[in-house]
Amino acid sequence: MSEHTYKMIELVGSSHTGIEAAVQNAIAKVEINESKMRWFEVVETRGHIENGKIAHWQVRVKIGVTMDE
Question: Using one digit for the tens of pLDDT, what is the confidence trace for 18-37?
């Protein structure tokens, strides 16, 4: 395994359809070359309730981005 230095970006993504879509929405907003994004970590999961039902999901994610050598 090579040695890397990472920058970590923390975002909250949301979706009406589910947790995975919320993660995808957060990652899609990162304006960095996709080849530099290496990993993500879901730090927190929560949702919004309306009329006794889940209205949307929210996830706080950390995204690891490799730094230029």
Answer: 999 999 999 998 877 777 88
Altogether, the residues listed in the chain come to a count of 69
Q: What CATH architecture applies to the domain 6-66?
A: 2-Layer Sandwich (3.30)
- On whether the pTM is more than 0.90, the answer is no
**What is the distance between the alpha carbons of residues 32 and 53, in angstroms, rounded to a whole number?**
35
The Cα 68–Cα 48 span in angstroms is 39
* 12 close to 59: Cβ distance less than 8 angstroms: yes
3-state secondary structure the chain: CCCCCEEEEEEEEEECCCHHHHHHHHHHCCCCCHHHEEEEEEEEEEEEEECCEEEEEEEEEEEEEECCC
